[in-house]
Write a structure and sequence with these properties.
CATH superfamily of one domain in chain A: NADH:ubiquinone oxidoreductase Nqo5 subunit
Largest sheet of chain A: 5 strands, mixed
CATH class of chain B: Mainly Alpha
Strand content of chain B: 5-15%
CATH class of one domain in chain A: Alpha Beta
Number of helices of chain B: 17
Order of helices and strands of chain B: EEEHHHHHEEHHHHHHHHEEEHHHH
Number of strands of chain B: 8
Number of helices of chain A: 4
CATH topology of one domain in chain A: Beta Polymerase, domain 2
Oligomer: heterodimer
Largest interface: A-B, 42 and 46 residues
Radius of gyration of chain A: 16 Å
Distance between the termini of chain B: 31 Å
Helix content of chain A: 10-25%
Radius of gyration of chain B: 22 Å
Structural class of chain A: alpha/beta
CATH architecture of chain B: Orthogonal Bundle
Shape of chain B: globular
Helix content of chain B: 40-55%
Strand content of chain A: 25-35%
Distance between the termini of chain A: 46 Å
Strand order of the largest sheet of chain A: 1-2-5-4-3
Largest sheet of chain B: 3 strands, antiparallel
Structural class of chain B: mainly alpha
Number of strands of chain A: 7
Strand order of the largest sheet of chain B: 1-2-3
Mean pLDDT of chain A: 86
Shape of chain A: globular
Low-confidence stretches of chain A: none
Number of domains of chain B: 1
């Protein structure tokens, strides 16, 4: 069984030499809402307003490859949407997971396409299937579903068989 | 740093038609060179491509949503259907992710067999790429040759799993069945003939001036742009980024194998062609090492609550029958948590993000697919070049629409 660190204080104290933790702490420690280390994967929850700057800062700290942006719907809990970013460092050969929460009423997160242009399709996919808007995205349209589709299929309150 | 931003949609310039020099051309979704149902909206100025907007989603089947309604073990066949040219890579990635959540140890023989089959998958997938890529360029013969060899590999898949393409051979906790008796000798026979065949393709194409002139310098992608656009796998390595997850973040005992990661700094279609050809030879090396050093032992983990018992035991032992019944009817609970597992599929980084809420069904399964990201780089590679080069570039990034649309 690998070690598990469940909260921000535990991660900050026992992983202080981790490059991402060092960088985040030197940048703006209060932007980190929560942190978790489980299954040998580090998850850092960032305050919603700070995600773009956090990505920019981490990119310059060596976490240079955005692998993925996706979302998890925790309906009916609040905040309902957890937008998740997986970032890989080509130099350090390490992965980092960032997370941003969004409420169920008009969910919106800042777009990070200005930091990583590859977020373009990823964010469109999240918008299409979860209905989370990305502020500042250059082309926020549906990508998988037809343009006139009603609803967002990957939401938990959307039936698996679709609406009849 | 990248020198562009993602572009919005193409709009016709109706306000001043006299200044509108360009025309919008629709390519696909039934175009033979778009490798499936890819639709491209191109803005062209004469023969020069100004912009490309991919329109995808024609194959969207909601696999991620379907996964949430299935037991963990029932998701394995769904993963085959994502990247239908490399089913074993999908199976492996999903199984590794769930095994990480379950914290179960996979026996060495299962791991090595997984490596062996994954490299065979890579060979089969690259053979399809080579055949179709050459066919797009106009060299029709290579297609027949590569499909002949691919069929031999598919026969091995059929022999081991009962299916040519939708194998579903890996299970959470190991492999589905014991490999048949002459499996290893059949693989050995393929490994013996393939190097010669790759030489043959190389003789047909590498020295061919028509093929060379058609590919050289076309579809250039710089390393910075490749990283910014999320390109992975052979296209990124052809741009000079030395990154291979098999070596940099080993999984399924890849760290025990010796192989080189071919790279090139040219970043054009020709470089991608050479990198993939070299990669096929490296895969052959890994297959040979896997055959030579194949360990003994079981093919399934010792986890009776997760792995189905042997058929014989199920029929003779009460306990095994109970476990069998429970796994089939109720599935198995996976501890709450989230993991992201990435592997090097033939097309690049394939990642599975699995979230568990502690029940027998995954709360969320997300697939990070290499083709989806690589498609974003299409415009950068084709901008300012001839329309006919688009066909060459699509062939060189080796996309599979099944995994783009999911």
């Amino acid at each position: 069984m690998t070690t598990t660190l469940m909260d921000k204080d535990a991660v900050f104290s026992s992983m202080s030499d981790h490059p991402a933790i060092t960088a985040l702490r030197n940048w703006k420690a209060e932007a980190v809402v929560d942190a978790k280390f489980a299954f040998e994967e580090l998850t850092v929850t960032i305050a919603a307003d700070d995600i773009r700057e956090a990505c920019r800062m981490l990119q310059s700290a060596g976490y240079d490859f955005l692998e993925d942006v996706t979302c998890v719907d925790w309906y009916p809990a609040e905040p309902r949407f957890h937008v998740t970013y997986h970032i890989w460092s080509l130099g350090l050969k390490q992965r980092l997971r960032l997370r941003v929460m969004a409420d169920s009423v008009d969910p919106a997160v800042d777009s990070i396409t200005v930091v990583w242009p590859s977020a373009n399709f990823y964010e469109r996919e999240v918008f299409d299937l979860f209905g989370v808007r990305f502020n500042g995205h250059p082309n926020l349209r549906r990508i998988m579903m037809p343009d006139d589709w009603k609803g967002h299929p990957l939401r938990k309150d959307y039936p698996v068989e679709g609406y009849r | 740093m990248p020198d562009f931003l993602p572009a919005p949609i193409i709009e016709s310039r109706v306000d001043d038609p006299t200044k509108d020099r360009t025309m919008v051309l629709n390519m696909g979704p039934q175009h033979p060179s778009t490798h499936g149902v890819l639709r491209l909206v191109l803005e062209i100025d004469g023969e020069t491509v100004n912009r490309i907007v991919p329109d995808i989603g024609y194959l969207h089947t909601g696999i991620e949503k379907t996964c949430e309604a299935k037991f963990y073990q029932q998701v394995v066949p769904l993963t085959d259907r994502i990247d239908y040219l490399s089913p074993m890579s999908n199976n492996l990635c999903y199984c590794l992710a769930v095994e990480k959540l379950l914290q179960i140890e996979i026996p060495p023989r299962a791991q090595w067999t997984r490596v062996l089959l994954n490299e065979l998958t890579r060979l089969a997938s690259h053979l399809v790429w080579l055949g179709t890529h050459a066919m797009d360029i106009g060299a029709l013969t290579v297609f027949l040759y590569t499909f002949r060899e691919r069929e031999e590999i598919l026969k091995i898949f059929e022999m081991i799993s009962g299916q040519r393409m939708m194998t579903s051979y890996f299970r959470i906790g190991g492999l589905a069945l014991e490999p048949p008796l002459d499996f290893y000798s059949r693989v050995q026979a393929i490994l013996r003939i393939l190097p010669e065949k790759i030489d043959q393709y190389s003789n047909l194409l590498t020295g061919n001036p028509i093929f060379y002139n058609r590919l050289k310098g076309v579809g250039h992608l710089s390393a910075a742009n490749g990283i910014a656009l999320g390109v992975t796998g052979p296209p990124l390595r052809a741009s000079g980024v030395d990154w291979d997850l098999r070596r940099d973040k080993p999984y399924s005992s890849y760290e025990k194998f010796q192989f080189d990661v071919p790279t090139s700094t040219d970043g054009d279609v020709w470089a991608r062609y050479l990198v993939r050809l070299l990669e096929m030879r490296e895969s052959l090396k890994i297959c040979q090492q896997a055959l030579d050093g194949m360990p003994d032992g079981p093919i399934k983990a010792d986890a009776p609550k997760v792995v189905l018992p042997e058929r014989e035991k199920m029929k003779t032992q009460m306990e095994a029958l109970i476990f069998h019944f429970k796994i089939v009817t109720e599935g198995f609970a996976v501890p709450a948590g989230e993991v992201y597992q990435a592997i090097e599929s033939p097309r690049g980084e394939m990642g599975y993000y699995v979230v568990s809420d502690g029940t027998a069904k995954p709360y969320r399964v997300h697939m990070r697919n290499p083709s989806f990201a690589t498609l974003q780089a299409l415009e950068t590679m084709c901008k300012g070049r001839m329309l006919a080069d688009v066909v060459a570039v699509i062939g060189s990034i080796d996309i599979v629409l099944g995994e783009i649309d999911r």
